[in-house]
Design a protein that fits this description.
Helices cover 18% and strands 36% of the residues. The protein has helices spanning 2-22, 42-47, 179-185; strands at 51-57, 62-65, 69-84, 95-104, 113-114, 126-137, 142-147, 154-156, 164-167, 176-178. Strands 1, 2, 3, 4, 5, 6, 7, 8, 9 and 10 form a ten-stranded antiparallel beta sheet that branches. The longest helix has 21 residues, at 2-22. It starts with a helix and ends with a helix.
Length: 186
């Protein structure tokens, strides 16, 4: 019995060493990993948003860092509010702070892990249809709004009436959306 136990233990040990030698070591790089979701329909992205609005995003932004997250903060001029399921009043003519989460850094000596699937971290200037979540944050002492996903941001096209919005990031999921699509999904 002891002989069989020794053979089984030795076999398991050799198998473990053999597996370790034939497996490539992980590179510990955050490149290629995304920590966020992507929606596949107008209904999904609409249902996940507390606030849906049309607003003008400027080119300029501030950079802010919390303990683990890096943000780009934009002062967005609100043109129209389609949906607001919060206690915070937002109306046309208001300005809101839009926080775009750029990366996650668990330790100061570690590389910043990207949050989105793509390399583009800045939001191009223009008019957007924004699907937002957020609210009052006691840590910073004011209301913060976040896109419900950094992988899909919809910018107005210059064609026609301007009610079609194209995803500024290359994606097969919801390449474009219209105000009518959103109103039908609400």
């Amino acid at each position: 019995m002891k002989k069989w136990l020794g053979v089984i233990t030795l076999s398991a040990f050799l198998l473990a060493i053999g597996s370790a030698c034939t497996t490539k070591e992980s590179t510990h790089s955050s490149g290629g990993f995304a920590l966020s979701k992507t929606f596949s329909s107008t209904e999904e992205i609409t249902q996940d948003a507390m606030v849906i609005l049309k607003g003008s995003v400027p080119k300029a932004y501030k950079e802010e860092k919390s303990e683990f997250l890096l943000y780009y903060v934009y002062e967005v001029a609100v043109d129209n509010v389609f949906q607001n399921h919060t206690d915070h009043q937002i109306k046309a003519g208001d300005t809101i702070k839009l926080y775009r989460i750029v990366g996650f850094q668990p330790d100061k000596d570690k590389e910043i892990a990207p949050i989105a699937d793509h390399k583009q971290t800045e939001i191009p200037e223009g008019e957007y249809l924004l699907f937002l979540n957020g609210g009052y944050d006691e840590e910073v002492g004011h209301v913060r709004w976040f896109p419900n996903t950094p992988n899909q941001l919809f910018k107005a096209t210059d064609e026609g009436s301007g009610t079609e919005y194209k995803n500024v990031f290359v994606s097969d999921e919801i390449p474009s959306i219209t105000e009518e699509d959103v109103l039908n999904a609400i």
